[in-house]
UniProtKB/TrEMBL annotation, chains A, B:
EC class: oxidoreductase
SUPFAM superfamilies cross-referenced by the UniProt entry: 6-phosphogluconate dehydrogenase C-terminal domain-like, ACT-like, NAD(P)-binding Rossmann-fold domains
Family: Belongs to the prephenate/arogenate dehydrogenase family.
Catalytic activity: prephenate + NAD(+) = 3-(4-hydroxyphenyl)pyruvate + CO2 + NADH
Keyword Cell cycle set for record: no
Superkingdom of source: Bacteria
EC annotation from Swiss-Prot or TrEMBL: 1.3.1.12
Single GO term (MF): prephenate dehydrogenase (NADP+) activity
InterPro entries: 6-PGluconate_DH-like_C_sf (IPR008927), ACT-like_dom_sf (IPR045865), ACT_dom (IPR002912), NAD(P)-bd_dom_sf (IPR036291), PDH_C (IPR046825), PDH_N (IPR046826), Preph/Arog_dehydrog (IPR050812), Prephen_DH (IPR003099)
Name of this chain's protein: Prephenate dehydrogenase
GO biological process: tyrosine biosynthetic process
Length: 363, 363
């Protein structure tokens, strides 16, 4: 069966994590998916893995997805535009401005090119790590504003929707600024923080908790990939790193004189600014200020939580976010519920009328 | 029944997250646990929550655990030493050198004081966040080298073992150096990184992935607590922050000239040093190792989540943790479920047989 929005053949060039994952997802929707890789070994692995079939004479793909390393992206996109004069070509590189500039410089037919970037990945690369659900619920940027046709953008949107991802339309410039902030700078900072651990004793590191693990997790990422990403987006990344350094200098000079007039207040303000920054993250549990939160006390059994949610459903109220605090040893569990502010009052009275105990919402 | 190593009464002063969690765990082992707090409201919440009983005339605790904010620790420890002349007193403050110095300056009887520090916590405080298993498998430093008796250290070790934590003996100085590296500096860096997000547009932040969430998670921590911790350990924290800044300066100047001779190699070496730092962390990085996690796609409509939980309940499987992640722009929510590893396989097949779609893209 074919339940995809995309019609016709899709050719994927580059059989790594992203290319193979796209192939797995498209084939699961019945799309005739061709996969190609300069490395015969990588190609056969991806085909064995179910990411698609090998290219054959007479292939006429309507859409080509280039999923090669960033510094090869423009070259391969230009080749594919030349080899398939009727195909629309996209790529999935993490930087969008540089490939576009390189394609222009190479005089490629960019009227058939629409760059894109799925915000998804794993620390492990290669087809072996591929999964059809890699993109589920993740944003996928489609770079617009370069004279591409509405129809072309629509085809890429269909691809993104077929992969259960969320299309986000941005110019290449807005994309590169955005990912510098939410992805490239965090990578650099996590890397430098992790580097400091080389000075630590085994005994010191034995005290490591989840906080340090989380803060440094992405520092385990592949250097070869990240050199390319950082170099391709360096001006924007450097701007934000300089702002970070200014704040760090301020923190150091303040903390160096903790007893000085106003020092504690200055530290408190910086810590609060960090709170505010985290609070801006979308869907971040317990932080999203678009929603009102309540904490309902629930007997610590699965049946009780199901009953609570069923009764919220009966009231026609939709949960925006929910978390169960299962606290072994306590007499109650806590269900923290986020709802749209306009329904909070109705939910409170509904729950209280049904005998639920509502604890004070988190600050 | 009483299956604890600790005998006699334990008095806990300070009914916040740590004090209430210690109380929950000791009571589950049958220890006569007295909880006290300067705030009647906090005290009654902790008692309602099961953390212990109120103090009574004739109480004769053999061990007192002071779990108050760092800047009150020395004062309260001195008071307790005075009020209970036969009791051994410990504290759980995140810094060990300063309270000891303050107790010496106050001429307290430190022969009955052994400082300690459980490496456990949560972004949220208060008894309402307490869990009896907060300390399971976590290191718990016992500060030695101040003329305390072997018997006293043994009593604190018994407390730590009763809470299923791991005793680690260190001097106060080694402790403070170690936590600066693995806890205090990561807090500052996460805070400054999160602060940079204030410059980001909503659209930019909509591209946020798990990497940024993890890297900034601890920046949501309580400023009032962290001012005290950072001020109390500032010289050591500042030393490491200066080393971080030197590396950041190097990164910025290199990335500012990415085409310069040797620039890419220098970036690669810094990224590799980050890899090496993460590799030094004990254990697997990632989520709570006590639980297996899976992500189930749930139609974002009233009642769907209730149906999922009801069906998990029907399967006789108990949730350890549950979170609904709202996916902006989609009608699908992602329910992140944590269960004991031994039931994961059964849960997956149960849910799939009932038609639920299981994603793991964020693992």
């Amino acid at each position: 069966m074919n339940d995809s929005r995309i019609s016709g053949q899709v050719r994927i060039v580059g059989a790594g994590l992203l290319g193979a994952s796209i192939g797995l997802a498209l084939r699961s929707k019945g799309v005739d998916t061709i996969v190609h890789d300069a490395s015969p070994g990588a190609l056969s692995l991806a085909i064995d893995y179910g990411a698609g079939r090998a290219a054959a004479a007479g292939d006429a793909p309507g859409l080509i997805v280039v999923a090669v390393p960033p510094d090869q992206t423009a070259t391969v996109v230009a080749q594919e535009l030349g080899s398939f004069p009727d195909a629309l070509v996209t790529d999935v590189a993490s930087v969008k401005g540089l490939p576009l500039a390189e394609l222009r410089a190479a005089d490629a037919d960019i009227s058939r090119y629409v760059g894109s970037h799925p915000l998804a990945g794993r620390e492990r690369g290669g087809a072996i790590s591929a999964r059809a659900d890699l993109f589920v619920g993740r944003p996928w940027v489609i770079a617009t504003g370069n004279g591409e046709s509405t129809r072309s953008v629509g085809v890429i949107e269909d691809l993104v929707l077929d992969l259960d991802a969320i299309p986000v339309l941005m110019t290449a410039e807005e994309h590169d600024r955005s990912v510098a902030l939410v992805s490239h700078v965090p990578q650099v900072i996590a890397t430098i923080l992790a580097k400091q651990l080389s000075a630590g004793s085994e005994r010191a590191l034995s005290l490591t908790g989840q906080g340090l693990r989380d803060t440094t997790r992405i520092a385990a990422s592949d250097p070869q990939l990240w050199i390319q990403i950082l170099a391709a987006n360096s001006p924007t990344v450097v701007d934000i790193l300089r702002s970070f350094r200014d704040d760090l200098d301020r923190f150091i000079s303040t903390l160096d004189q903790p007893a000085a007039q106003g020092a504690r207040r200055a530290i408190a303000e910086m810590l609060a600014a960090g709170n505010d920054g985290v609070a801006r993250l979308p869907g971040k549990h317990g932080q999203d200020r678009r929603f009102s939160r309540l904490v309902v006390m629930v007997d610590d059994t699965p049946g009780e939580l199901a009953r609570l949610l069923a009764e919220i459903g009966d009231a026609g109220i939709n949960l925006e976010d929910l978390r169960l605090e299962h606290s072994p040893g306590t007499l109650v569990g806590l269900a923290e519920i986020s709802v749209l502010p306009e329904v909070e009052a109705a939910l409170v009275s509904e729950l209280e009328s049904r005998g639920w105990r509502i604890a004070e919402a988190w600050k």
